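Q: How would the C-alpha cells look for this protein?
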Amino acid sequence: MAQIVKVRSPYIVEILGTINDTTTVEIFLWNDPASVPVNPQYTLSKPINSSVVTQASYDVAPYIREYITHTVYTEINADTAAPVGEYCYCNIKSYKNGVLQTGGGSYTEELICFDGFGYFADGQNPAQENAMLTEGTYYVENSGNTGGLYYTTEPSGTWQAKWTGLESGATSIITISNTVGYVPYIPTAFKWEKTKLEILESSVVQYTYTFIPICEPKYTTINCDFVNKFGAWQRLVFFKVSKDNIQVDNTEFNLMSDDTDYSLTQNRRATFNVNGQESITCNTGFVPETYKEVIRELMMSEIIRIDNKPANINTKSTELFKNINSNNINYELTFNYAYQTRNYIV
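A: Here is the predicted structure in C-alpha cell form.
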C-alpha cells in the first residue's frame, strides 16, 4: 500500500546513523500501467560527516517530478480514471553501510506521488488528502461541464461518492474504485440544482463540498483550469466581465536609401521582429469568503489553462478578502497566454 505524497514541496528521506557511516538512496520510478522497474532510475550517496548531525537527508522530490506532467483538463460526466501521467509511483530503498533499512519489506518507502505542495505551516513532508479539493462552497456553470473532483483510493479502504440535490432531496451514490480518478462536481442529472457532494470511506463521510450552478445571462463565462496544491486539476469559473488585451514588441531601424533621389513611398524607418503578447483580465463575480483559498492556490499554480489555452497568471498581488471588510467579494485577475501571437516556432 502506497503512502500519498506531494512533490512540489521537498520530500525528505532521512537515514539515521553515526559519524563515518555511508548512506545510499535508490529511487525507483514508474507510471501506470507499468510496474516497479528492476533497476533504480537514480542512486544518491553521501556519508555522515558529523558527530553532531547524525543523519543524512535526501530531497527526492525533484527526481519524482520528472515523471509527472499535466497537459489539459478533460471533461467527464461519470467516474473516470485520471490520466496516468498526472501522478507516478516511487519506491525507495535506503541503505546504511550497505544494509537495506526497512521494516521487513523489500523497500524502505512505497509512495504514490502528486505534483502538489504544502504551505510553510504544514512542516516537512506535508500530508496529502485522498480527495484533492479544499472543502467548501463553489460556483459552477449550469451547462453540465462543471469540473471534476480528483481522488485516490490509496492506501486502502472502500470509497464512495454521494451526491444530494439540496432542492429536490434526490441522491445518487457510487463506489469509486480507480486508484486515481475523478468524478464530476455535479452529475448531468443534477446540473440545474444546488448539490452536495460527499466522499465517504467505509460509509463514513470524510469530505463535503457544495456546488452551486450559476446561469450567467449577460457575460461569456471563462473556464480557468489549474493544478491546485494537491497536484490535481481544479476548475474556477469567471462569470463576469472579461477583457482581451494585446501588447506588441518590435525592433525599429533607420534604413539607408539606395539612391539620393529616394522614394517618397518606401519606409525609411523599418520595423522588424514584430510579435505580440495577448492577455485576458477576468472577474469572478461575487463569491464567498472561502474563495480566498482558491485564489491563493491559483496564484501559486505552475499550470493554468484559460478555456483550454495555456496561460500564466500575471497578477502578482491581490487582497484575500474577508466578509467583515468587504460585503461583495469579487476577484479580478489577469492572465498572459503562454505563447506569442505570431507563430515563430521552427
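The first helix runs from residue 61 to 65.

The chain is about 5% helix and 45% strand.

Upvote if useful.
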